[in-house]
TrEMBL record:
<dbReference type="InterPro" id="IPR036390">
    <property type="entry name" value="WH_DNA-bd_sf"/>
</dbReference>
<protein>
    <submittedName>
        <fullName>Hth domain-containing protein</fullName>
    </submittedName>
</protein>
<dbReference type="GO" id="GO:0006355">
    <property type="term" value="P:regulation of DNA-templated transcription"/>
</dbReference>
<dbReference type="InterPro" id="IPR036388">
    <property type="entry name" value="WH-like_DNA-bd_sf"/>
</dbReference>
<feature type="region of interest" description="Disordered">
    <location>
        <begin position="59"/>
        <end position="80"/>
    </location>
</feature>
<feature type="domain" description="HTH iclR-type">
    <location>
        <begin position="20"/>
        <end position="60"/>
    </location>
</feature>
<dbReference type="Pfam" id="PF09339">
    <property type="entry name" value="HTH_IclR"/>
</dbReference>
<dbReference type="InterPro" id="IPR005471">
    <property type="entry name" value="Tscrpt_reg_IclR_N"/>
</dbReference>
<dbReference type="GO" id="GO:0003677">
    <property type="term" value="F:DNA binding"/>
</dbReference>
């Protein structure tokens, strides 16, 4: 499982926080596939795809189809 249980609250916490995901996308010259991010974080691709989708829904990532793949990009508001 990719999430760990918080000992105090008993709730699951995300193993890969949003900042790690955003940084992994930035490190791929600002655009990356889920597979590239998963490789960078040594994480399952499906879990990373879910996290990327959540960041997109919150306006922190953009995405565009590139052939059969999706290229995730850091939103302008997130650029440093």
């Amino acid at each position: 499982m990719n999430d760990e249980r918080d000992e105090q609250s008993g709730r699951f916490k995300q193993k890969y926080d949003p900042e790690q995901i955003l940084e992994a996308v930035r490190e791929e010259d600002g655009g990356a596939t889920a597979s590239e991010v998963a490789d960078r974080l040594d994480a399952p691709r499906r879990s990373i795809h879910t996290r990327l989708s959540q960041l997109h829904e919150h306006g922190r990532l953009g995405k565009r189809d590139v052939g059969p793949s999706v290229l995730w990009t850091v939103a302008d508001t997130e650029e440093r």
